[in-house]
Amino acid sequence: MQHVRDLLRQLANFDPGDALVLSVYLDMRPHNDSPALRPSLTVLTDRFRQIEKTLLPRGPALDNFRLDANRVQRFLDEHAGPWLQGVAMFACNSHGLFEVIETGVPFENQVVLEPFPDLFQLARLVDEQETAVVALVDTNTTRLFVTRSGFLEEVAGPDDDSFGYRQRNTGGLNHKQYQRHVQNQRESFAREAAAALEELVRQEGAKRVILAGDAVAIPLLHRALSPQFEPLIQEEILRLDIRTPRHVVHREITPVLARVEGEESHTRADQLVEAVREQGLGVIGLEETRHALEHGQGEVLVLAEEAPLSEQERNDLVRLATLSGAEVDLVTGHEILQQLGGVGALLRYRPRWV
Q: Do residue 199 and residue 298 come from a single domain?
Protein backbone atom coordinates (compact mmCIF):
# COMPACT_ATOMS: atom_id res chain seq x y z
CA MET A 1 0.00 0.00 0.00
CA GLN A 2 2.97 2.29 0.50
CA HIS A 3 3.50 2.15 -3.27
CA VAL A 4 -0.06 3.41 -3.80
CA ARG A 5 0.46 6.22 -1.27
CA ASP A 6 3.68 7.20 -3.03
CA LEU A 7 1.92 7.21 -6.40
CA LEU A 8 -0.91 9.32 -4.99
CA ARG A 9 1.62 11.93 -3.82
CA GLN A 10 3.50 11.74 -7.12
CA LEU A 11 0.36 12.32 -9.15
CA ALA A 12 -0.84 15.13 -6.87
CA ASN A 13 2.46 16.91 -7.55
CA PHE A 14 2.42 16.18 -11.28
CA ASP A 15 2.18 19.33 -13.40
CA PRO A 16 1.48 18.62 -17.06
CA GLY A 17 1.57 22.29 -18.06
CA ASP A 18 -0.63 22.76 -21.12
CA ALA A 19 -0.92 19.01 -21.74
CA LEU A 20 -3.79 16.77 -20.64
CA VAL A 21 -3.64 13.64 -18.48
CA LEU A 22 -5.53 10.44 -19.26
CA SER A 23 -6.90 8.79 -16.09
CA VAL A 24 -8.42 5.32 -16.44
CA TYR A 25 -10.13 3.29 -13.72
CA LEU A 26 -11.67 -0.06 -14.68
CA ASP A 27 -13.72 -2.80 -13.06
CA MET A 28 -11.95 -5.82 -14.50
CA ARG A 29 -14.32 -8.47 -13.20
CA PRO A 30 -15.58 -10.75 -15.99
CA HIS A 31 -19.19 -11.10 -17.00
CA ASN A 32 -20.92 -13.90 -15.07
CA ASP A 33 -22.08 -15.75 -18.17
CA SER A 34 -18.86 -15.23 -20.15
CA PRO A 35 -15.70 -15.40 -18.03
CA ALA A 36 -13.58 -14.20 -20.96
CA LEU A 37 -15.72 -11.06 -21.40
CA ARG A 38 -14.94 -7.96 -19.38
CA PRO A 39 -17.64 -5.30 -19.88
CA SER A 40 -15.26 -2.55 -18.78
CA LEU A 41 -13.21 -3.00 -21.96
CA THR A 42 -16.24 -2.00 -24.01
CA VAL A 43 -16.68 1.04 -21.77
CA LEU A 44 -13.03 1.92 -22.37
CA THR A 45 -13.36 1.69 -26.16
CA ASP A 46 -16.51 3.84 -26.16
CA ARG A 47 -14.92 6.50 -23.95
CA PHE A 48 -11.82 6.61 -26.14
CA ARG A 49 -14.02 7.28 -29.18
CA GLN A 50 -15.97 9.98 -27.35
CA ILE A 51 -12.84 11.75 -26.11
CA GLU A 52 -11.16 11.55 -29.52
CA LYS A 53 -14.13 13.31 -31.15
CA THR A 54 -13.67 16.29 -28.82
CA LEU A 55 -10.06 16.70 -30.03
CA LEU A 56 -10.62 16.47 -33.80
CA PRO A 57 -9.57 17.32 -36.44
CA ARG A 58 -5.88 17.60 -35.52
CA GLY A 59 -3.34 18.98 -33.08
CA PRO A 60 -0.82 17.92 -30.43
CA ALA A 61 -3.56 17.14 -27.88
CA LEU A 62 -5.09 14.61 -30.29
CA ASP A 63 -1.70 13.10 -31.13
CA ASN A 64 -0.77 12.69 -27.47
CA PHE A 65 -4.16 11.26 -26.58
CA ARG A 66 -3.91 8.62 -29.31
CA LEU A 67 -0.46 7.60 -28.09
CA ASP A 68 -1.68 7.37 -24.49
CA ALA A 69 -4.84 5.47 -25.45
CA ASN A 70 -2.82 3.00 -27.53
CA ARG A 71 -0.42 2.44 -24.65
CA VAL A 72 -3.30 1.79 -22.25
CA GLN A 73 -4.90 -0.65 -24.67
CA ARG A 74 -1.59 -2.42 -25.30
CA PHE A 75 -1.01 -2.87 -21.57
CA LEU A 76 -4.46 -4.41 -21.12
CA ASP A 77 -3.97 -6.72 -24.11
CA GLU A 78 -0.58 -7.95 -22.88
CA HIS A 79 -0.70 -7.84 -19.09
CA ALA A 80 -4.25 -7.99 -17.72
CA GLY A 81 -4.40 -11.45 -16.15
CA PRO A 82 -7.66 -13.27 -15.37
CA TRP A 83 -7.06 -12.76 -11.62
CA LEU A 84 -7.25 -8.98 -11.95
CA GLN A 85 -10.24 -7.27 -10.31
CA GLY A 86 -9.37 -3.64 -10.92
CA VAL A 87 -6.80 -1.50 -12.70
CA ALA A 88 -5.96 2.22 -12.65
CA MET A 89 -3.75 3.88 -15.26
CA PHE A 90 -2.45 7.40 -15.67
CA ALA A 91 -0.82 8.56 -18.90
CA CYS A 92 0.60 11.78 -20.34
CA ASN A 93 2.88 11.03 -23.27
CA SER A 94 4.30 14.55 -23.63
CA HIS A 95 5.68 14.38 -20.07
CA GLY A 96 6.65 10.70 -19.99
CA LEU A 97 3.94 9.67 -17.51
CA PHE A 98 2.58 6.13 -17.53
CA GLU A 99 1.67 4.57 -14.20
CA VAL A 100 -0.38 1.43 -13.50
CA ILE A 101 -1.93 0.07 -10.30
CA GLU A 102 -3.39 -3.45 -10.40
CA THR A 103 -5.78 -4.31 -7.58
CA GLY A 104 -7.72 -7.17 -6.04
CA VAL A 105 -10.81 -4.97 -5.74
CA PRO A 106 -12.77 -3.37 -8.60
CA PHE A 107 -12.87 0.33 -9.41
CA GLU A 108 -15.86 2.16 -10.83
CA ASN A 109 -15.37 2.48 -14.58
CA GLN A 110 -14.05 5.97 -15.33
CA VAL A 111 -12.06 7.27 -18.30
CA VAL A 112 -11.27 11.00 -18.35
CA LEU A 113 -8.87 13.40 -20.06
CA GLU A 114 -8.24 16.38 -17.80
CA PRO A 115 -5.58 18.98 -16.91
CA PHE A 116 -4.59 16.92 -13.84
CA PRO A 117 -4.77 13.22 -12.89
CA ASP A 118 -8.08 12.20 -11.33
CA LEU A 119 -7.17 11.00 -7.84
CA PHE A 120 -10.48 10.32 -6.08
CA GLN A 121 -10.67 6.57 -6.62
CA LEU A 122 -6.97 6.18 -5.87
CA ALA A 123 -7.53 7.97 -2.54
CA ARG A 124 -10.47 5.67 -1.87
CA LEU A 125 -8.22 2.66 -2.45
CA VAL A 126 -5.71 4.00 0.09
CA ASP A 127 -8.47 4.75 2.59
CA GLU A 128 -10.40 1.49 2.30
CA GLN A 129 -7.55 -0.96 1.71
CA GLU A 130 -5.16 -0.21 4.55
CA THR A 131 -2.49 -2.89 4.90
CA ALA A 132 -3.45 -5.65 7.34
CA VAL A 133 -1.56 -8.69 8.58
CA VAL A 134 -3.37 -11.96 9.26
CA ALA A 135 -1.94 -14.68 11.51
CA LEU A 136 -3.56 -18.11 11.10
CA VAL A 137 -2.35 -20.34 13.91
CA ASP A 138 -2.72 -23.60 15.73
CA THR A 139 -0.51 -24.70 18.62
CA ASN A 140 2.50 -25.62 16.46
CA THR A 141 2.01 -23.94 13.07
CA THR A 142 1.74 -20.34 11.94
CA ARG A 143 0.77 -18.99 8.54
CA LEU A 144 1.15 -15.25 7.92
CA PHE A 145 -0.69 -13.21 5.28
CA VAL A 146 -0.62 -9.55 4.27
CA THR A 147 -3.18 -7.53 2.34
CA ARG A 148 -1.94 -5.30 -0.47
CA SER A 149 -4.29 -3.25 -2.67
CA GLY A 150 -7.12 -5.72 -2.21
CA PHE A 151 -4.97 -8.83 -2.68
CA LEU A 152 -4.11 -11.28 0.08
CA GLU A 153 -0.61 -12.73 -0.13
CA GLU A 154 0.81 -15.50 2.02
CA VAL A 155 4.32 -14.62 3.12
CA ALA A 156 7.18 -16.92 4.00
CA GLY A 157 7.77 -17.40 7.71
CA PRO A 158 10.59 -19.15 9.56
CA ASP A 159 11.23 -22.73 8.46
CA ASP A 160 9.45 -25.67 10.04
CA ASP A 161 12.42 -26.81 12.13
CA SER A 162 12.73 -23.51 13.96
CA PHE A 163 9.14 -22.39 13.93
CA GLY A 164 7.21 -25.45 14.92
CA TYR A 165 8.01 -27.97 17.58
CA ARG A 166 8.15 -31.69 17.35
CA GLN A 167 6.71 -34.06 19.88
CA ARG A 168 9.67 -35.15 21.99
CA ASN A 169 10.07 -38.27 24.08
CA THR A 170 8.24 -37.54 27.31
CA GLY A 171 8.61 -40.95 28.86
CA GLY A 172 8.78 -40.90 32.64
CA LEU A 173 6.64 -37.78 33.01
CA ASN A 174 3.50 -38.05 35.09
CA HIS A 175 0.27 -36.50 33.83
CA LYS A 176 0.78 -33.17 35.59
CA GLN A 177 4.36 -32.86 34.38
CA TYR A 178 3.30 -33.79 30.85
CA GLN A 179 0.59 -31.13 30.81
CA ARG A 180 3.08 -28.53 32.04
CA HIS A 181 5.54 -29.63 29.34
CA VAL A 182 2.91 -29.26 26.62
CA GLN A 183 1.85 -25.83 27.91
CA ASN A 184 5.45 -24.64 28.04
CA GLN A 185 5.99 -25.81 24.46
CA ARG A 186 2.86 -24.01 23.29
CA GLU A 187 3.80 -20.78 25.04
CA SER A 188 7.32 -20.91 23.61
CA PHE A 189 5.92 -21.40 20.14
CA ALA A 190 3.44 -18.54 20.65
CA ARG A 191 6.34 -16.22 21.52
CA GLU A 192 8.16 -17.21 18.33
CA ALA A 193 4.99 -16.69 16.29
CA ALA A 194 4.40 -13.30 17.94
CA ALA A 195 7.94 -12.17 17.09
CA ALA A 196 7.48 -13.13 13.43
CA LEU A 197 4.08 -11.41 13.32
CA GLU A 198 5.41 -8.21 14.87
CA GLU A 199 8.33 -8.10 12.44
CA LEU A 200 5.95 -8.46 9.48
CA VAL A 201 3.73 -5.67 10.83
CA ARG A 202 6.76 -3.39 11.08
CA GLN A 203 8.03 -4.29 7.61
CA GLU A 204 4.65 -3.69 5.97
CA GLY A 205 3.60 -0.68 8.02
CA ALA A 206 0.35 -2.57 8.71
CA LYS A 207 -2.51 -0.72 10.38
CA ARG A 208 -4.49 -3.79 11.44
CA VAL A 209 -3.86 -7.31 12.72
CA ILE A 210 -6.36 -10.15 12.49
CA LEU A 211 -5.88 -13.33 14.52
CA ALA A 212 -7.40 -16.53 13.18
CA GLY A 213 -7.09 -20.19 14.05
CA ASP A 214 -8.08 -22.54 16.85
CA ALA A 215 -9.41 -21.65 20.27
CA VAL A 216 -6.26 -22.68 22.16
CA ALA A 217 -3.62 -21.02 19.99
CA ILE A 218 -5.21 -17.58 19.48
CA PRO A 219 -5.22 -16.50 23.16
CA LEU A 220 -1.63 -17.71 23.56
CA LEU A 221 -0.51 -15.67 20.56
CA HIS A 222 -2.49 -12.64 21.70
CA ARG A 223 -0.87 -12.66 25.14
CA ALA A 224 2.59 -13.05 23.60
CA LEU A 225 2.28 -9.89 21.49
CA SER A 226 3.94 -6.72 22.74
CA PRO A 227 1.59 -4.13 24.32
CA GLN A 228 2.23 -1.55 21.58
CA PHE A 229 0.59 -3.87 19.04
CA GLU A 230 -2.65 -4.17 21.03
CA PRO A 231 -4.40 -1.19 19.31
CA LEU A 232 -3.91 -2.88 15.93
CA ILE A 233 -5.61 -6.15 16.88
CA GLN A 234 -9.20 -6.54 15.77
CA GLU A 235 -11.64 -7.81 18.36
CA GLU A 236 -13.39 -10.18 15.97
CA ILE A 237 -11.48 -13.47 15.99
CA LEU A 238 -11.94 -15.94 13.15
CA ARG A 239 -12.02 -19.67 13.87
CA LEU A 240 -10.32 -21.16 10.83
CA ASP A 241 -8.50 -24.44 10.31
CA ILE A 242 -4.76 -24.10 9.79
CA ARG A 243 -5.13 -25.71 6.34
CA THR A 244 -7.71 -23.18 5.13
CA PRO A 245 -6.92 -22.18 1.51
CA ARG A 246 -5.70 -18.63 0.95
CA HIS A 247 -8.75 -17.61 -1.09
CA VAL A 248 -11.04 -18.75 1.74
CA VAL A 249 -8.99 -16.78 4.29
CA HIS A 250 -9.37 -13.76 2.02
CA ARG A 251 -13.12 -14.27 1.77
CA GLU A 252 -13.45 -14.51 5.55
CA ILE A 253 -11.40 -11.43 6.41
CA THR A 254 -12.89 -9.11 3.76
CA PRO A 255 -16.12 -8.30 5.65
CA VAL A 256 -14.16 -7.89 8.89
CA LEU A 257 -11.87 -5.31 7.36
CA ALA A 258 -14.79 -3.52 5.67
CA ARG A 259 -16.65 -3.30 8.97
CA VAL A 260 -13.63 -1.97 10.81
CA GLU A 261 -12.95 0.63 8.11
CA GLY A 262 -16.60 1.75 8.22
CA GLU A 263 -16.53 2.09 12.00
CA GLU A 264 -13.31 4.11 11.95
CA SER A 265 -14.64 6.43 9.24
CA HIS A 266 -17.83 7.05 11.22
CA THR A 267 -15.71 7.82 14.28
CA ARG A 268 -13.78 10.40 12.26
CA ALA A 269 -17.05 11.95 11.07
CA ASP A 270 -18.29 12.09 14.68
CA GLN A 271 -15.06 13.85 15.68
CA LEU A 272 -15.54 16.38 12.90
CA VAL A 273 -19.14 17.14 13.88
CA GLU A 274 -18.14 17.58 17.52
CA ALA A 275 -15.23 19.85 16.57
CA VAL A 276 -17.51 22.05 14.44
CA ARG A 277 -20.16 22.27 17.16
CA GLU A 278 -17.55 23.37 19.69
CA GLN A 279 -15.84 25.75 17.24
CA GLY A 280 -12.80 23.61 17.71
CA LEU A 281 -10.40 21.96 15.33
CA GLY A 282 -12.86 21.38 12.50
CA VAL A 283 -14.50 23.13 9.56
CA ILE A 284 -17.44 22.12 7.41
CA GLY A 285 -18.45 23.11 3.90
CA LEU A 286 -16.75 23.08 0.49
CA GLU A 287 -15.17 26.54 0.55
CA GLU A 288 -14.13 26.39 4.21
CA THR A 289 -12.55 22.98 3.66
CA ARG A 290 -10.75 24.07 0.51
CA HIS A 291 -9.41 27.15 2.32
CA ALA A 292 -8.09 25.03 5.20
CA LEU A 293 -6.37 22.61 2.83
CA GLU A 294 -4.86 25.39 0.72
CA HIS A 295 -3.32 26.92 3.83
CA GLY A 296 -1.97 23.67 5.25
CA GLN A 297 -4.41 23.67 8.19
CA GLY A 298 -6.19 20.43 7.31
CA GLU A 299 -5.10 17.24 9.03
CA VAL A 300 -7.87 14.96 7.72
CA LEU A 301 -10.20 15.60 4.79
CA VAL A 302 -13.52 13.98 5.73
CA LEU A 303 -15.65 13.40 2.66
CA ALA A 304 -19.05 11.70 2.45
CA GLU A 305 -19.43 9.39 -0.53
CA GLU A 306 -22.91 10.90 -0.93
CA ALA A 307 -21.69 14.52 -0.90
CA PRO A 308 -23.31 16.61 -3.69
CA LEU A 309 -20.00 17.46 -5.35
CA SER A 310 -18.90 17.29 -8.96
CA GLU A 311 -16.08 14.94 -9.95
CA GLN A 312 -13.86 17.98 -10.41
CA GLU A 313 -14.64 19.32 -6.92
CA ARG A 314 -13.93 15.94 -5.31
CA ASN A 315 -10.70 15.56 -7.23
CA ASP A 316 -9.55 19.07 -6.33
CA LEU A 317 -10.12 18.38 -2.62
CA VAL A 318 -8.23 15.09 -2.75
CA ARG A 319 -5.38 16.73 -4.62
CA LEU A 320 -5.16 19.62 -2.12
CA ALA A 321 -5.27 17.19 0.80
CA THR A 322 -2.49 15.05 -0.67
CA LEU A 323 -0.30 18.05 -1.47
CA SER A 324 -0.65 19.36 2.08
CA GLY A 325 -0.01 15.97 3.71
CA ALA A 326 -3.57 15.57 5.00
CA GLU A 327 -5.23 12.17 5.21
CA VAL A 328 -8.36 11.47 3.19
CA ASP A 329 -11.20 9.68 4.99
CA LEU A 330 -14.22 8.68 2.89
CA VAL A 331 -17.42 8.06 4.83
CA THR A 332 -20.61 6.26 3.84
CA GLY A 333 -24.00 6.54 5.53
CA HIS A 334 -23.26 9.21 8.17
CA GLU A 335 -26.52 11.17 8.28
CA ILE A 336 -25.30 14.24 10.19
CA LEU A 337 -22.29 14.66 7.91
CA GLN A 338 -24.58 14.44 4.90
CA GLN A 339 -26.90 17.07 6.38
CA LEU A 340 -23.91 19.38 6.81
CA GLY A 341 -23.01 19.11 3.13
CA GLY A 342 -20.84 16.01 3.24
CA VAL A 343 -17.43 17.67 3.30
CA GLY A 344 -15.21 18.99 6.07
CA ALA A 345 -11.76 18.82 7.60
CA LEU A 346 -10.22 18.11 10.97
CA LEU A 347 -7.57 20.75 11.55
CA ARG A 348 -3.99 20.75 12.79
CA TYR A 349 -4.52 24.05 14.59
CA ARG A 350 -7.38 26.44 15.31
CA PRO A 351 -8.06 28.86 12.44
CA ARG A 352 -7.59 32.57 13.06
CA TRP A 353 -11.19 33.44 12.25
CA VAL A 354 -12.54 31.36 15.18
A: no
